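Long-time lurker, first post. I've been practising inverse folding by hand and with some scripts of my own, and I keep getting stuck on stretches where the structure tokens seem ambiguous. Below is the full token string for one chain I'm working on. Before anyone asks, I'm not after the true native sequence, just a reasonable design that respects the backbone. If someone could post their per-position residues I'd love to compare against what I wrote down in my notebook.
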């Protein structure tokens, strides 16, 4: 009887020979010797045969372990994965998109086809066939050799999760075998490379989402939270939309995002300032040393705009998350304005004190011309906010002509942050009715008229981009006017009121272009006005 040895049966033959004690001492050239020669001269020199043999060892434990077949396979696979790509001469599976420089079609070669380069992660897909226990040992052995970069290890773990976790790419687990998949996720977290920023933040967030769904251990979740906090500027709004646990009233788990922001703040405060400045400047040169904070502020503003659509989202949850990034630098306030407007639209029944609290988040001076045009028409905003938008647009236009801003009448100064045109924060508070007042067309015209008297010598000067933006705002306001005495309005609304409180600034570079014409229509609950007669 002739038995042909191959990668699928050689381990079983070796274990049987050991059991039968077919050693060299019994007979020269016995079976054990022949199998060992076959393994060393053929199997362990082949990339794919080494993987096949390693897979077969699982059903033959502990024999395969004691005979060191497993350790030889691990060393063979790890050595080949760690080899310089120029020396890779065997076949491998690679179905992902290569870079132009890797497939020989780079334009720099002037249509002369270059020999195809082997990508650094050429071995990733073949190892996805291994069971998680064997995969863990292979990756650990590769990391021990120290010749494979952390980003390639991260790519390997990502590919394995996509192959082995059904629904992982969509942020869900589609199988009920929670124990199996929980072990898999915890193992992947344990295998994550220690080097910073070697694993994409989107992959870490998908892992966190899976860890929450599978109820993984607290240690694994905390590790993911720590890593994500360090890389939070790389995240997207979609990445952060993690569903709340079953039974919760809200749609999304906002507490997770709140904790991630706190992790980011803690990491940012512990990082060496010079190292942090170098990393941030290289990542986003236009934002300078505060690039990471600017990006996180933009991210959270976008996230707030998404969760604001949830009718069960409490105002405290919304405000607390916004205040978490209130101190971060922002080049624009449009993103926060859009989030606030979305919340007011989806929660028309909030109380006057809640309306006052949410409006304190926004600084009208940092709204773009487009956002100002929308805010002037927005009947969901309190009257004070509309006044501030009109005034600061006027100040912007005045400054563009080279003139100084004149002294303000007390009626307008009372409406501005801190009662002063120079302060960046508000120290004003009105009665609850004032904050909840919706500006009518008459109010807008009266305000516009008094603000127009502050213009100094700009009628004959050339108008630049800021003048054009001011003109647009005034046109919007004029379209809603029918006339009202300014003195009456101010004496009715703000006479003798003591002012205190605070408006904090928050913004993004987004433009609230998603707000359509339907949003500017008056709602029945907001159309009533206090009598001014």
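-- Answer (accepted) --
I ran through it position by position. Result:
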């Amino acid at each position: 009887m002739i038995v042909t040895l191959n990668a699928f049966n050689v381990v079983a033959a070796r274990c049987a020979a050991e059991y039968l004690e077919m050693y060299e001492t019994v007979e020269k050239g016995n079976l054990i010797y022949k199998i060992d020669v076959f393994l060393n001269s053929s199997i362990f020199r082949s990339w794919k045969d080494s993987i096949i043999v390693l897979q077969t060892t699982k059903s033959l434990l502990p024999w395969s372990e004691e005979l060191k077949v497993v350790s030889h396979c691990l060393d063979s696979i790890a050595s080949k994965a760690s080899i310089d790509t120029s020396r890779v001469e065997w076949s491998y599976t690679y179905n992902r998109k290569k870079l132009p420089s890797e497939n020989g079609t780079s334009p720099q070669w002037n249509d002369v086809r270059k020999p195809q380069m082997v990508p650094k992660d050429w071995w990733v897909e073949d190892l996805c066939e291994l069971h998680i226990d064997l995969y863990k040992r292979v990756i650990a052995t590769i990391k021990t050799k120290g010749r494979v970069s952390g980003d390639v290890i991260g790519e390997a773990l990502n590919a394995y999760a996509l192959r082995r976790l059904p629904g992982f790419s969509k942020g869900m687990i589609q199988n009920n075998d929670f124990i199996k998949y929980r072990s898999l996720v915890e193992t992947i977290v344990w295998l994550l490379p220690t080097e910073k920023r070697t694993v994409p933040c989107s992959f870490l967030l998908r892992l966190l989402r899976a860890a929450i769904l599978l109820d993984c251990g607290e240690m694994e979740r905390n590790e993911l939270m720590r890593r994500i906090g360090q890389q939070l500027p790389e995240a997207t709004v979609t990445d952060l939309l993690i569903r709340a646990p079953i039974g919760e009233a809200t749609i999304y788990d906002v507490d997770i995002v709140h904790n991630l922001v706190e992790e980011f703040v803690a990491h940012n405060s512990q990082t060496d300032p010079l190292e942090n400045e170098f990393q941030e400047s290289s990542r986003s040169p236009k934002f300078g040393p505060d690039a990471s904070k600017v990006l996180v502020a933009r991210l959270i503003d976008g996230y707030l705009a998404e969760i604001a659509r949830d009718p069960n989202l409490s105002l405290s949850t919304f405000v607390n998350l916004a205040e978490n990034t209130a101190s971060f630098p922002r080049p624009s306030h449009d993103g926060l304005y859009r989030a606030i407007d979305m919340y007011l639209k989806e929660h028309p029944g909030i109380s006057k004190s809640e309306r006052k609290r949410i409006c304190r988040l926004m600084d009208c001076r940092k709204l773009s011309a487009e956002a100002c045009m929308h805010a002037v028409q927005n009947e969901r905003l309190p009257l004070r906010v509309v006044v501030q938008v009109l005034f600061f647009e006027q100040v912007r236009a005045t400054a563009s002509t080279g003139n100084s801003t004149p002294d303000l009448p007390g009626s307008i100064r009372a409406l501005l942050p801190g009662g002063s045109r120079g302060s960046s924060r508000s120290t004003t508070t009105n009665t609850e009715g004032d904050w909840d007042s919706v500006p009518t067309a008459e109010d807008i015209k009266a305000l516009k008229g008094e603000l127009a008297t502050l213009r100094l010598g700009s009628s004959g000067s050339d108008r630049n981009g800021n003048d054009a933006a001011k003109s647009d705002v005034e046109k919007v306001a004029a379209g809603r006017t029918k006339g009202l005495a300014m003195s009456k309005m101010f004496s009715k609304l703000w006479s003798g009121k003591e002012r205190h409180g605070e408006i904090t600034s928050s913004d993004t570079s987004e433009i609230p272009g998603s707000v359509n014409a339907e949003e500017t229509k008056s709602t029945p609950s907001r159309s009533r006005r206090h009598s001014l007669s």
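A couple of notes from the structure itself: Residues 99-107, 419-432, 454-465, 476-533 have pLDDT under 50 and may be disordered. The two ends are 113 Å apart (CA to CA). Happy to go over any region you disagree with.
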